[in-house]
Automatic annotation (TrEMBL):
This is endopeptidase La. It comes from Bacillus yapensis. Its EC number is 3.4.21.53. The active site is at S235, K280. InterPro entries: Lon_proteolytic (IPR008269), Lon_Prtase (IPR027065), PDZ (IPR001478), PDZ_sf (IPR036034), Ribosomal_Su5_D2-typ_SF (IPR020568), Ribsml_uS5_D2-typ_fold_subgr (IPR014721). Belongs to the peptidase S16 family. It catalyses: Hydrolysis of proteins in presence of ATP. Residues 112-187 form the PDZ domain. Keywords: Hydrolase, Protease, Serine protease. One of its GO terms (biological process) is proteolysis. One of its GO terms (molecular function) is ATP binding. Pfam families: Lon_C (PF05362), PDZ_2 (PF13180).
Length: 342
């Protein structure tokens, strides 16, 4: 009887521990290798050219740590643990972090389109649609009236032509003045009447207390659609630009290879550093990539490229790691690549 009692007691304790370990959040994030995903089904240039090989974006999986995932990351290769302040900005909520990541992705799409179309010699027009709220400063006038993700498109009933114009309009107000912001939230239009107040850390400046990013649209012909779903962050920008350009030009730059990579992209074509390069190498290798583009950062001692080379050696992959600093460098490499033998 005692043995049964102790067995049941132990079993109940175990169930409670597993439940607690799964649902109790720790002040950390855990990242692990994600996936390498072909871009041709994601990106569609109107009447674009087809390719024999493929370009692939690489991802990492990032999530709040619970006891179970924290302990697993401690004993697993290529899983990393980060404190909250290494991932989220100071006082940034989880919702604001997710909104920021999605808007960083949106910005990277625009830069990728701009780089690819300019390289192909195709004109681009711009249309400004307002600004998105990235975060709301606690204790400032917008707190409780606006939330991350709100799309502001009018101020005092007037449209504005840039985020700079929006900021200047608010900055010209005096403390205590009221402004009316017209916004959309979940496809519903609303208005917020907000007083302008000095910033706590700089009494010489006034505002409502929001971080923002442009809602800018590029108008191109042929048109292009990028369906990135819920993938966030800017690290796919460079690979987006390669896929878009490859559909714009007749020559197939994949040369029949499976080509993965990562890196931010600026409108000037500069490829930037990203986080989690080691985990992305693992993801690309598992997906069968033969070539991997890694940001070279002009040969910096701690560059993404050097970390990628080390990881590739550690896991014994045959994947070729190629350093790149600019979009033009990547195109030059691909144009001189021998076609894959069938």
């Amino acid at each position: 009887m005692n043995k049964r009692f102790y067995f049941r007691f132990f079993f109940i304790l175990l169930v409670l521990f597993l439940f607690f370990a799964t649902f109790y959040s720790l002040p950390y994030y855990v990242s692990k290798p994600g996936m390498a995903k072909e871009l041709e089904p994601i990106i569609e240039v109107e009447n674009g050219y087809e390719e024999e090989g493929s370009f692939m974006l690489t991802t990492i999986r990032m999530g709040k740590a619970n006891i179970y995932s924290y302990l697993l990351a401690k004993v697993s290769d290529y899983q990393e643990i980060y404190p909250l302040d290494a991932v989220r900005a100071e006082e940034e909520t989880e919702e604001e972090y997710n909104v920021r990541q999605l808007h960083l992705m949106a910005t990277s799409k625009l830069a990728a389109i701009e780089v690819a179309y300019k390289k192909a010699g195709i004109p681009i027009d711009y249309k400004f649609n307002g600004v998105y709220v990235l975060n709301v400063v606690e204790g400032m006038p917008a707190d409780g009236k606006l939330v991350a993700g709100d799309h502001i498109f009018k101020i005092d009933g007037k449209e504005f032509k840039s985020s700079e114009e929006f900021i200047n309009y608010v900055s010209d107000k005096s403390a205590g003045d009221e402004i009316t912001l017209t916004y959309k939230r979940d496809d519903k239009e609303g208005e917020a009447i907000i007083k302008v107040e000095p910033f706590p850390d700089d009494k010489t400046r006034v505002g409502v207390g929001i971080g923002l990013v442009d809602d800018k649209e590029l108008i191109v012909d042929p048109s292009v659609e990028i369906n990135s779903e819920e993938i966030g962050g800017p690290s796919a920008g460079f690979m987006f630009s390669l896929e878009i350009y490859n559909q714009l030009v007749e020559e197939d730059l994949t040369r029949g290879y499976q080509i993965a990579g990562t890196g931010t992209i600026e409108p000037a074509g500069i490829i930037g550093r990203i986080g989690g390069i080691e985990q992305k190498i693992v993801a690309a290798d598992k997906a069968g990539a033969e070539i991997f583009f890694a940001p070279n950062e002009e040969g910096a001692a701690d560059s993404n490229y050097k970390a990628a080379i080390k990881t590739a050696k550690d896991i014994g992959t045959k994947m070729k790691i190629v350093p790149v600093d600019t979009f033009d460098e990547a195109i030059d490499y691909l144009e001189n690549l021998e076609p894959k033998k069938k």
